[in-house]
Amino acid sequence: VNQNKLDLFCKLGYGKQDICKVLDNLGPEALEDDVLKELIRLGSRPQALENQAQPSPLKLVARGSCSTTPGLKRLGEDESDSSDSLRPIVIDGSNVAMSHGNKEVFSCWGIQLAVDWFRERGHTYIKVFVPLWRKEPPRQDSPIADQHILEELEKQSILVYTPSRKVKGKRVVCYDDRYIVKVAYEKDGVIVSNDHYRDLQNENPEWKWFIEQRLLMYSFVSNRFMPPDDPLGRHGPTLDNFLSKKPVLLEKKWQLCPYGKKCTYGNKCKFYHPERLRQAQLSVADELRAKTKVPLTLQKEEERCNCSP
């Protein structure tokens, strides 16, 4: 009987030593369910499960191979999670290129610099809008530099040409600014441009708010794309929060007060004042009230003392 039970549990993957130990403890008449419970209680595991539980060593994979290790897949998942927290980027290609070319040359390299800057931050959705006629050979009145960059960005599905056509020898161009604002609004993203789109703001009140809150201006400093650290001004969000869907709010008590020593809020101010660490943080108005109340209270106390027997 014991041999049959031994063979049965061996087939289930349990070790002979553990099975024999349990059978000796329970006796030859023990039920199979009791033997199984005792094996589980001892912490014995089938050998097949133990082999699966052991981490498989990382294998070297040749470049270009499709096979990936589980660890690498997890890294990819984490990266996608982090990119999900970043806002989509919509770049006004004409504005960026002309700005990099000092408003004289359509510099495609400026567009590449802007795209690379957002790529390095981890943004996965980046779109650049450029009029279709910029694909044509350059003319003297509209010079283009590094035009091949447009082709490369188009192959990467980053560059989008806004449509245009010729009617009776005249070029009919669609308004690319409308594409830029519309896509950024629908994607709840950020517009990268130094243009204020005032005509589009007047068209649609929702667009007006969106342009005011989501327009990221920039500068080129020695072929370096540089957006401001405070896109909405001194009292607005930081650049990291501006480009994130879930901004990280710092505790206000650790944020320096923008008014500094000129602040009149006193202890009601929610910001940090290093100069007020050893003094009561009263507002200027409260300090004046306190000074005027002191002599009045002293006079009243003196009168009470004089009146008392």
From TrEMBL:
Domain of life: Eukaryota
Source taxonomy: Eukaryota, Metazoa, Chordata, Craniata, Vertebrata
Family: Belongs to the ZC3H12 family.
Signal peptide region: none
GO CC, alphabetical: cytoplasmic ribonucleoprotein granule; nucleus
PROSITE patterns: ZF_C3H1
Keyword Nuclease applies: yes
Zinc finger (C3H1-type): 251-276
CDD domains registered for this protein in UniProt: PIN_Zc3h12-like
UniProt protein name: ZC12D ribonuclease
Database matches in InterPro entries: Rege-1_UBA-like, RNase_Zc3h12_NYN, ZC3H12/N4BP1_RNase_Reg, Znf_CCCH
Organism this protein belongs to: Grallaria varia (variegated antpitta)
